[in-house]
Specification:
There is one protein chain. The protein has 235 residues and is an alpha/beta fold. It has one domain: 3-Layer(aba) Sandwich (Rossmann fold). The protein has a 7-stranded mixed beta sheet with strand order 3-2-1-4-5-9-8, sandwiched between helices.
Length: 235
């Protein structure tokens, strides 16, 4: 019931702020990985309104850095942290495209854990992204992403409207108000991760957790296997 206690996060975003969805995702993303977050420096890619950086703080993270492309969400994240009394020396939020920020040779970010939550299917710049993640020298990469339902190595390509908050943000790669994005199948996602030196060490069992539950429409993509939560370790 984490976000029931910190309910500002239900109002500071237009995207996926359903209480049940947040509660179950908190279990899969944070509670199930509390041991790697405790005492860690955490980088939150596409940090949105700071909800998962904040949850990592309460799991014991020593410091969180968020990168977010939408200025209004950076403002909301800072306001949320300030409202809930997180000391300023324990967090930072960077306004910018995550791939561009991490591609800069002097970005100066270091992290023990990288959270890449709800972002992989809003980009297709995978080589730059994974090399950027490696540049912060993490031990762990926590990925939560939509996937294309196929057993083959498949990447479903599409475009998204950059004016919609729940879709890809505007940036240097956009054209005509739209951004090219990709949605990998689970085998393709694992192939991408391994190609850049990340081994999947744990897959959260969404189907097992939801098997006997009713009213799970807010997390139906997890129940159907069209979204996954994986913990990876960098080689």
């Amino acid at each position: 019931m984490f976000f029931a206690k910190y309910d500002r996060f239900l109002d500071t975003s237009e995207t996926a702020a359903h209480p049940l969805r947040l509660r179950l995702r908190h279990r899969a993303i944070v509670r199930d990985n509390a041991e790697i977050l405790d005492g860690a420096r955490v980088l939150d890619i596409a940090s949105h309104d700071g909800r998962w950086s904040f949850a990592a703080q309460h799991a014991g993270a020593a410091h969180t850095t968020g990168i977010e492309a939408r200025a209004e969400l950076v403002d909301n994240a800072v306001a949320n942290f300030t409202h809930y009394g997180i000391p300023e020396d324990r967090f930072s939020f960077v306004h910018g495209d995550a791939v561009d920020v991490l591609s800069a040779p002097d970005h100066g970010i270091r992290a023990d854990v990288v959270m890449c939550l709800g972002f992989l299917y809003h980009t297709i710049r995978y080589p730059e992204l994974f090399l950027g993640i490696r540049s912060v020298a993490p031990t762990y990469l926590l990925v939560d992403t939509a996937v294309w339902p196929a057993k083959q190595l498949v990447l479903k390509i599409n475009t998204e409207d950059v004016t919609v908050q729940s879709q890809a943000a505007d940036g240097t790669q956009a054209f005509g108000g739209r951004m090219l994005v990709g949605r990998p199948s689970p085998p393709a996602l694992e192939f991408l991760l391994r190609s850049y030196g990340f081994d999947v060490v744990k897959r959260f069992d969404w189907q097992g957790m939801l098997a006997n539950r009713s009213g799970i429409n807010p997390v139906s993509t997890y129940a159907s296997g069209r979204r996954v939560t994986w913990l990876c370790r960098m080689r």
